[in-house]
């Protein structure tokens, strides 16, 4: 006999045997799984307007993309783009290089600032830019260990 958890929650009457069953189930689930569940359970539905070029918009996009520490993505956005004021390509808030817009930029090379022209990826919107960053820097990608492996946001 199987049961859907959504049905169990829907028909829960807080009877003693039901509470015992919920407590037993909770003891069987690893803490990191419970934490992920709590985040999903408590978060409001995301709409396209939630992905505005603001701290909260980047935070929402980072959560949706799967960043373990979305506030780190938002901090990187603030640092790299001057709080969303400067992009290096269309909707590129993180200075991600690649085919797209060619832009004159300053880089620190061999202890000094130099000016170069470089290609920066163009993105259709902020959400796509954040997803690209999270997929390649925060998750494991192409043999590299991602930021999501850190034990804390400070690490």
Describe the fold and architecture.
- This protein has 155 residues and is α+β, with helices and mostly antiparallel strands.
- Helix content is 43%, strand content 13%.
- It contains six helices and two strands, in the order αααααββα.
- The protein has a two-stranded antiparallel sheet with strand order 1-2.
- β1 and β2 (112-121) form a beta hairpin.
- α4 (55-65) crosses α5 (70-81).
- It starts with a helix and ends in a 17-residue tail after the last helix.
Record the SSE blueprint.
Blueprint: H1 5-10, H2 16-28, H3 31-42, H4 55-65, H5 70-81, E1 100-109, E2 112-121, H6 126-138
Antiparallel strand pairs: 1-2
Gyration radius, in Å: 21 Å
Q: What gross morphology would you assign?
A: elongated
- The total count of strands amounts to 2
Element-by-element helix/strand order? HHHHHEEH
Largest sheet: 2 strands, antiparallel
Mean residue pLDDT: 89
Helix percent band? 40-55%
The N- to C-terminal Cα distance equals 45 Å
**Weakly predicted, low-confidence segments:** none
Number of helices: 6
Strand order of the largest sheet: 1-2
Please, what is the oligomeric state? single chain
Structural class: alpha+beta
Taken as a percent bin, the fraction of beta residues is 5-15%
